[in-house]
Structure prediction request, 309 residues.
Amino acid sequence: MEPRELAGHVASGIVAGTAVEAALYPIDTIKTRLQAARGGAAVSWRHLYKGLGGNLVGVVPACALFFAVYEPAKRALLPTPGAFGEGTAAHHRRTAAAHLAAAASAGLASSLVRVPTEVVKTRMQTGQFSSARAALRHIVAKEGRLAAGLFAGFGSFLLRDLPFDAIEFASYEQLKLAWCALAPVAPKPSSTAPGGTNPDGEVETRRRPLRRHESAVLGAVAGAVTGAVTTPLDVVKTRLMTQGAEGRGGGSDGRRYRGVVDCLARMVREEGASSLLKGIQPRVTFIGIGGGVFFFVLEAAKGVFVAES
Prediction:
């Protein structure tokens, strides 16, 4: 992939990621507060944009890293039609696997930025700090820079986001391929003969590109389904990231949960299995709408930043 083309994909990803984060941040705040609340604790509905500025600072490099890995990996992993002497079904399976692997690799790379950003964001959304700077200073000074602080919940974040990224992007790519395959074909312009015919007089055709509103619908479907499936892992991630050093009921350091397994077990034991689905409605709403907005803006931005091949 040429550097200029890669830069176009990265720019498109940044625009799409920033747009969806800014537009749907209040829903994400509501979801986070619902998940962080234990038992019947009251949930505050004030200051729904709290932490947005600091979060956007992290969104830009995270999106840049994601697409800097995703697009080249996808290009390298996608099979050439007929390269293995396989039929259409086998080719589609290889294509889906390529999208899954590329998105998971990109998610792993971007997590180096996304996790610290998510820790600061969730602390602010739950009212623990008044600014991103104050949250960052406290976490680094009191809780440590790595596992206990800025990378708190890193394991649960990967457990949630690697499957999420892989499933959402692979679902969208496969839905897009399937939809375009079903869509009406258009005559392919020919430089050798008028009317879109080749020298043998046969009509050449090409699949029409995905329209903007279609990318929004397919993105919303992919996002909503993926969001619902990964809600329990999202709840665990939120609990681990928001417990802080002042958490009660844990070990000698005062932390309430000792890890992913302990968090899952204690939540089910103390609050019931339904606690793992806390915030599922705003999460599905957020990610469903977010998926539609993200892929709509992404495809539109590609039309600006990525030259057609």
The first strand starts at residue 185 and ends at 187.
